[in-house]
Design a protein that fits this description.
Number of helices: 5
Structural class: mainly beta
Helix content: under 10%
Shape: globular
Number of strands: 38
Largest sheet: 22 strands, antiparallel, barrel
Oligomer: single chain
Strand content: over 45%
Radius of gyration: 24 Å
């Protein structure tokens, strides 16, 4: 495979050289910020990025961004367990994987470039990522550790928040309800007056769930304020708070009682940005925290637990970058990141009493808190070598207070083979330091774990079609030191299990036929040398959109094959087809009615072992904009 990639890279160079005398005119393609820190025409980046726009998020009528983003992004898959809500702890869904990689803390979620994950457990919190705050979502498919460090080994999902661009006010209110006592409500407002702008929102959702003891209830709110001192300098701050109560019914073969979680997550940040055209940058200070209270429940016929599991975790950090263009076609970005993260975990009697701490220090003694630090510096260099060729190369030096040092290189070429086509070659490294839970919590903990890492080799091709585009890419992943829990002498232990290899290809297209009809489609194939739970061998989606006068509808079909529910000698795989549809009707200038159905083929399927999804479900409501 490596030799094949080298041959294809050489072929790309040859094609580019042949085209150099004929290419002179280019148009601006989509602008992205993920994988580059500053707004950049995606044509000049060798990275593979999927961008899901605000209209695409809105037409799905889901309060979480993940169902829509998963549907529209080839190579990305997210496990689910119910009509809404992912939950946490044992029995939680929301495991996100890109190209089969993403277990635990291997994939990073960002909000405006700010890391979002639990300080002790290291993983994202899927229920915190709300559609109401998002202007768009960018998914970098492949390692992003050069810019974002540990936990971006598989890639990143970056939620870019909304911002009013012109003076005025815009308000959205959405109310809906449907199957299994599900209620969803949200309200948001964007405002701009001169130098000041704001974006605020609140949301509520709940469901009885399609199984007994599978209730879910969530409250969320966010606010983002900004002030422009002049055309070059801007100060902004944001806060985000989510509280949810999730009941885990357990697998159908072994149902649970009273397995409930009360989770509160919050974040806040303050950013100062500058933009002088040929140079721009930002300084951000942020803090992300969580309080978890969990009753692990008991099996039917068993005895209720007497203790609650509780933990407090946090991530605080400072991020700075400055990007500059020193001459035509050049862009150099320098950056420094520092993070301080950790927390405390304990068992506490329900009736009150002495805490039993669960986190060990480096000497193996139980402690009321533990933290770690990570500091890194990076430089990224991008240069247009000719009108038909762009080069990108970067390196990061990362120091972790426990894991030590890591060098993270990245490089690629973008060949503009015609005014509407680009061919790209990319080599990038991703890594993940072992997290506090793996090293210092619970019986499997192991203080001698090494960092996971992988190299990603990729070729991609994009063709713009005027009213749409097509894209294709192939990739090869060579990883090592994967952390797994295995039994040694009858006891579980976290160890580095060795190498892993994934390779495959991805296809995607979108096209607008006329003012009324458009289509989105994608397909991904994944070969895993070692099977990985929650990763499908193939994933296909096609969606058709129609709008005319007051009426609109969207129909989407998704096919999943070879989804590993369990691995090992008796591996269990799922295959299923989902049909979803949404219809809208504009009853007044500011008011729209909607109705949607999911799993209309009433498929009996699971994405998480023992948690079968509901058959056909329906939602309807009203959408008000003024």
């Amino acid at each position: 495979m490596k030799r094949t990639f080298l041959f294809l890279v050489s072929l790309c160079i040859g094609i580019g050289l042949k085209a150099q005398d004929t290419l002179r005119l280019y148009h601006i393609d989509e602008v992205v910020v993920t994988g580059t820190r500053n707004n950049t025409d995606v044509r000049h980046l060798p990275l593979t990025i999927t961008s899901v726009s605000r209209p695409q998020l809105e037409q799905s009528y889901t309060q979480s961004v993940l169902p829509t983003v998963t549907q529209l992004t080839p190579g990305l898959f997210t496990t689910t367990r119910g009509i809404i809500g992912y939950g946490v702890s044992t029995g939680a869904a929301g495991s996100m994987k890109i190209r089969g990689v993403g277990s635990g803390a291997q994939l990073m979620v960002l909000i405006d470039g700010q890391p979002q994950y639990a300080g002790l457990m290291g993983h994202p919190i899927p229920d915190a990522y709300q559609t109401m705050m998002a202007e768009k979502v960018e998914v970098l498919r492949g390692p992003a550790s050069m810019f974002y460090g540990s936990n971006a080994m598989a890639g990143v999902i970056n939620i870019v928040t909304r911002q009013q661009e012109t003076d005025g006010s815009r308000t959205n209110i959405r109310l809906g309800g449907g199957s299994y006592g599900t209620i969803q409500a949200e309200a948001g407002n964007s405002y701009k007056s001169g130098a000041f702008n704001s974006n605020v929102g609140i949301s509520y959702q709940r469901t009885d769930g399609h199984r007994e003891n599978s209730e879910f209830e969530q409250y969320s709110g966010f606010a983002k304020l900004g002030y422009s001192f002049n055309p070059n300098w801007k100060l902004s701050g944001d806060v985000n708070l989510t509280h949810f109560i999730a009941s885990n019914p357990g697998p159908e073969s072994a149902p649970l009682l009273d397995n409930d979680s009360w989770i509160t997550r919050g974040l806040a940040s303050l950013s100062l940005t500058n933009n002088y055209g040929n140079t721009n940058g930002a300084l951000r200070v942020y803090y992300d925290w969580g309080h978890h209270k969990i009753d692990d429940g008991y099996n039917v016929g068993g005895t209720p637990r007497t203790n609650l599991y509780k933990h407090d975790d946090y991530i605080g950090g400072i991020s700075w970058y400055q990007s500059a263009s020193f001459f035509e076609g050049n862009r150099v970005t320098f950056g420094i990141d520092w993070q301080h993260f950790g927390g405390s975990a304990w068992n506490e009697p329900k009736t009150g009493g002495e805490k039993t701490y669960l986190v060990k220090d480096k000497d193996g003694n139980l402690t009321d808190g533990l933290h770690q630090d990570e500091i890194a510096g990076y430089v990224d260099f991008r240069q247009d070598l000719a009108e038909w060729l762009s080069m990108e190369a970067g390196i990061r030096y990362d120091h972790h207070s426990t894991a030590g040092n890591e060098w993270v290189p990245q490089g690629g070429l973008s060949f503009h083979v015609s005014p509407t086509a680009d061919l790209k070659a990319m080599v990038s490294k991703g890594f993940r330091n072992s997290i506090i839970r793996e090293m210092y919590m619970f019986p499997p903990s192991n203080t001698e774990l090494e960092s996971e890492s992988m190299m990603n080799y990729e070729l991609s091709y994009t063709q713009r079609l005027g009213k749409g585009h097509i894209g294709a890419n192939i990739f090869y992943i060579d990883g090592k030191n994967l952390i797994s829990t295995v039994r040694i002498d009858g006891r579980p232990k976290n160890i580095n299990t060795g190498e892993f290899t994934n390779y495959g290809f991805e296809l995607n297209t979108d096209y607008r036929f006329n003012a009324h009809w458009s289509i989105d489609a994608n397909y991904s194939f994944l070969h895993m040398k070692q099977a990985i739970e929650g990763a499908p061998e193939s994933k296909f989606y096609v969606g058709v959109n129609y709008a005319q006068n007051r009426f609109g509808f969207n129909v989407g079909v998704q096919r999943i094959d070879g989804l590993y529910i369990t691995t090992g000698d008796n591996a269990l795989k799922e295959n299923f087809t989902l049909l979803n549809a949404t219809a809208t009707y504009q009853v007044a200038k500011a008011m729209k009615l909607y109705v949607k159905g999911e799993n209309l083929l009433a498929q009996h399927y699971q994405t998480y072992n023992g948690f079968y999804m509901p058959r056909a479900t329906f939602m309807g409501g009203i959408d008000i904009n003024f």
